[in-house]
Design goal:
Blueprint (H helix, E strand, L loop, with lengths): L1 H23 L1 H6 L5 H13 L34 E5 L9 E6 L7 E4 L18 E9 L9 E4 L8 E2 L3 E4 L29 E5 L10 E5 L7 E2 L3 E7 L8 E9 L9
Length: 265
């Protein structure tokens, strides 16, 4: 019987006929209890295995947006934060001074912030540190015959204190170098390489054939406090009968600061 139906209607047709028969007999099956659950599953499985495949349908229009959901419950209150504590660093923590920071009550989080080293050459507005030397040049031309010439010099970095006349040394052309004007580091001091011990101001005349050798080479404090050097500089005065009109006198100088670690004379 099934073969005849299959040959006449094909598999899809047989399935359709079977569905029609079940539909017509639905009342009788319902009265007698109908198909069992297992039988229903078997019929669906058979129907799916013979169903046709057609082109995929077009996508339907997007549905309307759903209603806004209810507001969620308020979350738990977070843990209160901790403040930052600051303090002064000890000498062991920062030899040049500094500060410390840490989370309040948590010593393990302590961090030190040390002061930086002095800049190079030094911080603006400071003074020449003990043991450091600065050098420069001086010179001029005599404009009035047989009169002294004035050659002012300035220290680019001021000294912490003036240098007295006793600690000021002048070296004229041909003079031997006094020990106060030799820093002892091996290089011979001269007008080309001026040197000075801590707390000393040494003035060198250049060994040029153009400049005469003055009888006197005096250093005066420009602040009007006698001979020697002020904190900011000095005035060098070559004088004597050899200083004639048009004479050129020039040279170099060195000044070294004294203080902690470098005793002043």
């Amino acid at each position: 019987m099934f073969s005849i139906l299959r040959n006449r209607f094909g598999i899809p047709g047989v399935v359709a006929v079977m569905a029609l028969v079940f539909a017509m007999l639905g009342g009788a099956y319902a009265a007698s209890g109908g198909l069992t659950g297992k039988q229903k599953k078997e019929v669906k499985t058979i129907a799916k295995s013979f169903q046709g495949t057609g082109p995929e349908g077009k996508q339907g229009p997007q549905g309307q947006a759903g209603a806004k959901g209810d507001t969620g419950a308020k979350g738990d209150t977070g843990t209160a934060g901790k403040s930052v504590e600051t303090g002064n660093a000890t000498v062991g923590e920062c030899p040049d001074g500094g500060a410390t920071v840490q989370v309040a009550g948590e010593a393990a989080t302590k961090k030190k912030i040390c002061n930086g080293e002095d800049g190079s050459p030094w911080t603006a507005g400071g003074t020449l540190p003990p043991g450091e030397t600065e050098t420069g040049a001086w010179g001029g031309i005599v404009e009035n015959e047989f009169e002294a010439m004035f050659a002012p010099v300035s220290f680019s970095i001021p000294l912490a204190s003036p240098i007295t006349n006793a600690n000021t040394k002048t070296i004229k052309k041909g003079d031997s170098i006094p020990p106060e004007c030799d820093d002892g580091e091996g290089e011979a001091p001269s007008a080309v390489n001026p040197e000075a011990d801590p707390g000393r101001f040494c003035v060198f005349q250049a060994p040029s054939g153009v400049s005469p050798t003055p009888e006197f080479l005096t250093v005066t404090n420009p602040g009007g406090t006698g001979q020697g050097a002020a904190k900011t500089g000095a005035i060098i005065i070559p004088s004597g009968v050899s200083i004639a009109l048009g004479s050129e006198v020039y040279g170099t100088f060195a000044v070294t600061a004294c203080g902690t670690g470098f005793p002043c004379p």
